[in-house]
Amino acid sequence: MLLKDIQDIFHKELDDIYGKNEVDSFFFMLTESYFGVKRFALALTPDFTITKEQETPMFAALSELKLEKPIQHILGTAHFYGLDFLVNEHTLIPRPETEELVTFILEKAKKANNKNLCILDIGTGSGCIPIALKTELPTAKVFALDISAEALQIAQKNAENNNVSIEFTQADVLSLQDLNVFDEADLQFDIIVSNPPYVRNLEKAEMRKNVLEYEPETALFVEDDNPLIFYDTIANLAMQHLKTEGSLYFEINQYLGQEMIALLEEKQFQHIELRKDIFGVDRMLKADIS
User: Fold this and answer.
1) Is 195 a known ligand-binding residue?
2) Among 39, 177, 204, 221, which residue has the fewest nearby CB atoms (within 10 Å)?
3) Is residue 216 marked as binding?
4) Structural domain of 24
5) pLDDT band of 214, cuts 50, 70, 90
């Protein structure tokens, strides 16, 4: 069967759900993953034909896309900061906004020219943040924690696949007992970063099925009456375990930027900087400790 005929079927079945451009993107991601054929090559070879056996994964993917399963889960991988990451239902799919958070961190970290940086990522999921940071800052010592053992298994595989060493720990950041590990080891960090759960339950109506049904709720949602619970706890941890002139970085709920500033000001953090993401909404925040 001609690949261009399969592409026509994808558009017929999926355009009403995703739109033409996104369907094209899915189609070419699948053809590259399954057949090693890049988009430009298909454009140059309109009569590219695949066998009946090769059709099977394409039509299986089509069926899953009709159910709004994320393309990253269908392929089992996601791209982040120029690296490939395994993902599944236990991990959040890395997003472009989080790439911006990594860039934000690297701006200061590279200027400091500190060869012995110590970094902690809280709520690591697939490990995309610490692995990207370790790749860019190879001499840094990087720690990461998550409540989910299943997520940490994926994160460890991702570290191995990307040839970096990260010290992963299973811990609940809301549990004082779990956090005793930092006190016992007397660990102090130059950078603490977190992209914790921050979507309020009242905001679920704004989210697509592919997120609500396929990504882990525990990594996404917080109660409406205490949406900053993770930030408050992590900020308190940072007050104890950030080195002098260390920095705390967060990815945040776009609607709660001012509340986040107030929270950190109350705790006497300095040089608080709120940044917008590529979509023009408040998404990243940095605060220093003096």
Assistant:
1) yes
2) 177
3) no
4) 3-67
5) confident
**Same structural domain for residues 123 and 231?**
yes
Q: Is 280 annotated as a binding residue?
A: no
248-289 residue pLDDT tens:
999 999 999 999 999 999 999 999 999 999 999 999 999 999
Alpha-carbon separation of residue 36 from 49, 135, 162, 198, 258 (angstroms): 13, 26, 21, 38, 47
Domains in the chain: how many in total?
2
Residues 98, 205, single domain; the answer is yes
- Statement to judge: residues 131 and 40 lie in one domain: no
Known binder of ligand: residue 247? no
For residue 35, the surrounding DSSP H or E stretch is: helix 20-35
Instruction: Let me know whether 49 and 100 are in one domain.
Output: no
* pLDDT value of position 201: 85
Looking up residue 140, the CATH number of its domain turns out to be 3.40.50.150
18 is in an annotated binding site: no
Is residue 72 included in any domain, yes or no? no
Contacts of 156 (CB under 8 A, 6+ apart): 127, 166, 168
Instruction: Tell which residue, 48, 94, 53, 52, has the closest CA to residue 71.
Output: 94
End residue of a domain, out of 16, 48, 67: 67
The answer for residues whose C-beta is within 8 angstroms of residue 191's C-beta and 6 or more apart is: 105, 109, 117, 118, 119, 120, 246, 247, 248, 249
Helix (H, G, I), strand (E, B) or coil at 118: strand
> Are the C-beta atoms of residues 192 and 246 closer than 8 Å to each other?
yes
Q: Is 196 marked as a binding-site residue?
A: yes
Q: How many CB atoms lie within 10 A of CB 245?
A: 12
To the question of whether residue 231 is assigned a binding role by annotation, the answer is no
Does the annotation place 246 within a ligand binding site? no
Tokens at 169, concatenated: 């720990």
